[in-house]
């Protein structure tokens, strides 16, 4: 099966012209030298944003929210013996290797092969340290009481001891709750499409894909069969592209034999709002993926935005002409990006004096300390982002210093003076 992870190796040997880039590099060489000096100044301890950074110091009660890449990796590498207690909180009691979820939808990988039970790693930690100070709670974090340093959690299991929220106290807390699928506010997404972010999503997609073929075998009209066997993927990012490729291979290699009477009617389409699929990757990778999709008959509907989703069709608008049309489907998978979880948005609102207005991520220092968290909160993963230093005040200061004659302009001679001063610092 062709996957995104092997694109780089496939591109080895492809020639890329560098002359344009070389010209740009030469043109900006002087500025680059100055910028290196500016970066050194930014890293100086005299800047408050750097001097206030404090790493996660061991001791007390540590709570980790989330069992995804951030939370799981932290727990695996953490020396739990240096803490009074370590509590991992997550509604999902296993780590999920999400890049392989598309392969689960078509049976290339079994579900159990891409998960790691959390209690297994907890047991290893306790056995290694000889302490019983590490535990896992299958609950969902709902709210933080920053003043009392308590995380309120909801029991999401089918058998509950109480309907009251569980109080989990902490001294240090790491937010690694990840993100949720982004519906973009499009009506019908929640009701009529499938996400591909959890194991249950993959299982349900596989079931509905097979059901579409089963139903197509009993349909009386070719038009209905074509509708049932049209599989639409919204989003041309890594998840959408990987799933579309896996599904196309599944249809060609296995479905074509099991459902030989209708398999020739199956079609896979990817709807992408940008000009190219994988548009955040290197252009060569994007071109390769596009060419590969052409070879295996996957249609890419570019520069198009989904305006609504109906029970058996998506309403798509051409971004250039603004014309709308319906695309029928049997199964629609929504892979159009991520959005912050309610917990993240609630925490951002509590820290609004230190977090960007209408922010979608918890802003942190380079040590992943949450801004406004008073040294007790850290964040990692899709719910967080490192805050960039504000360069405007520094730029204004450099301009004022360089403008010796105060005429509001910087001459070449003034530029040379400030350039020498920066290099001397």
From TrEMBL:
GO terms for cellular component: mitochondrial inner membrane. It is an enzyme of class 1 (oxidoreductase). This is NADH:ubiquinone reductase (non-electrogenic). SUPFAM superfamilies: EF-hand, FAD/NAD(P)-binding domain. Keywords: Calcium, FAD, Flavoprotein, NAD, Oxidoreductase, Transit peptide. It comes from Perkinsus olseni. Signal peptide: none annotated. Belongs to the NADH dehydrogenase family. One of its GO terms (molecular function) is calcium ion binding. It is found in: Mitochondrion inner membrane. Coiled coil: none annotated. It holds the Pfam family EF-hand_5. Residues 390-425 form the EF-hand domain. Gene3D superfamilies: 3.50.50.100.
């Amino acid at each position: 099966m062709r996957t995104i992870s092997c694109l780089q190796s496939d591109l080895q040997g492809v020639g890329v012209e560098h002359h344009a880039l070389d010209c740009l590099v030469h043109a900006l060489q002087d500025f680059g030298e100055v910028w290196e000096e500016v970066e050194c100044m930014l890293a100086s301890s005299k800047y408050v944003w750097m001097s206030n950074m404090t790493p996660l110091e061991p001791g007390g009660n540590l709570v980790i929210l989330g069992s995804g890449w951030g939370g799981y990796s932290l727990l695996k590498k953490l020396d739990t013996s240096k803490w009074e207690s370590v509590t991992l909180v997550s509604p999902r009691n296993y780590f999920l290797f999400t890049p392989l979820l598309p392969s689960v939808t078509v049976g290339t990988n079994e579900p159990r092969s891409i998960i790691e039970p959390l209690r297994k790693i907890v047991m290893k930690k306790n056995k290694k340290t000889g302490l019983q100070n590490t535990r896992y709670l299958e609950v969902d974090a709902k709210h933080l009481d920053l003043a009392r340093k308590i995380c309120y959690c909801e029991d999401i299991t089918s058998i509950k001891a109480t309907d009251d929220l569980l109080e989990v106290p902490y001294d240090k807390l790491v937010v690694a709750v990840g993100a949720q699928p982004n519906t973009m506010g499009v009506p019908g997404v929640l009701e009529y499409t499938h996400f591909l972010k959890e194991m249950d999503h993959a299982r349900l997609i596989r079931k509905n894909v097979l059901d579409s073929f089963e139903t197509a075998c009993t349909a009386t009209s070719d038009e209905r069969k074509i509708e049932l066997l049209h599989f639409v993927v919204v989003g041309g990012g890594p998840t959408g592209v990987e799933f579309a490729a896996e599904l196309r291979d599944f249809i060609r290699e296995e479905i074509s034999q099991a459902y030989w009477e209708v398999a020739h009617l199956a079609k896979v389409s990817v709807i992408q709002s940008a000009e190219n699929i994988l548009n955040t990757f290197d252009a060569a990778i994007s071109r390769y993926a596009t060419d590969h999709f052409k070879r295996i008959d996957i249609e890419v509907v570019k520069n198009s935005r989904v305006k609504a989703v109906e029970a058996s069709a998506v309403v798509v608008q051409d971004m250039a002409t603004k014309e709308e049309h319906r695309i029928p489907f049997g199964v629609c998978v929504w892979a159009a990006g991520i959005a912050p979880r309610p917990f993240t948005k609630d925490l951002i609102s509590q820290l609004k004096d230190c977090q960007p207005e209408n922010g979608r991520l918890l802003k942190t220092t380079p040590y992943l300390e949450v801004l406004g968290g008073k040294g007790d909160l850290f964040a990692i993963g899709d719910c967080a982002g490192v805050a960039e230093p504000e360069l405007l005040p520094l730029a204004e200061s450099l301009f004022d210093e360089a403008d010796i004659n105060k005429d509001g302009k910087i001459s070449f001679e003034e530029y040379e003076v400030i350039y020498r001063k920066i290099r001397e610092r």
